[in-house]
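Continuing the series of single-chain predictions for the mutant panel. This is the parent chain; the variants come on the following pages.
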Amino acid sequence: MRFSSALKTVAISFALTASGLALAQGGGAPGGGGGGVDAKKAEAAARAEQNAKSLNSDLTPKLPPATVPADPQNIWDLDLSSGGRVRIQLRPDIAPAHVERIKELTRQGFYNGLKFHRVIPGFMAQGGDPKGDGTGGSTMPDLKAEFNPMPHLRGTVSMARAQGEDSANSQFFIVLLPRMQLDKKYTVFGRVIDGIQYVDAIAQGEPPANPTVILQASMDSDGKPPVVAPPMAAPAPSIVDKPVAARPAVKKAAPAKK
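Parent structure:
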């Protein structure tokens, strides 16, 4: 009996020792292994947060910058008969095909001599039509629309088109006052950065009685000097404007002989 009791005591002591070792090693007791579990939870939470951020960044629309650094390769110069040079910053980052078309036609001399055929006060000034009535274009194919998020603000330059979205060709318009209802319906490809006062001076009308003309269109990088309209010749003074001494003598009819 004593021997049996001694064995029981040894067994209990061994069990308690083993249990102590297990607790020391974190073997499943409350709080045991908590460091490892917490680390895994923290890692999973960080991964989930990173995935959420990535998902949100993919869903957020990436708007183009409102302005870009001036680049002579992408500045379109229009010398107008309304008084001076208008400088337009082109935006190949938002409308590459339209900007390329403008550059190509400009270097062909296509726009030289064309009129602003439709100018609506407080709205826009439209030009780029060789026919001068809004129905013409270049011999190049029409362009596929490149609608973008840029707003139609004062000075915005956008491509004119017919009813079809992919019908823009050579005609363009310059916005005089904001018209947000045009956004994402017409392709914005630039904005006036200098000379807006000459845009304001473009003759108004549909068509204007005495339309403003593009004397020269050029790319800033080509370095062409501005072209100005020749001064209008003063009208010859009428006879009533001449001093009396300069007027031709008026011959009186001789009295009839009796």
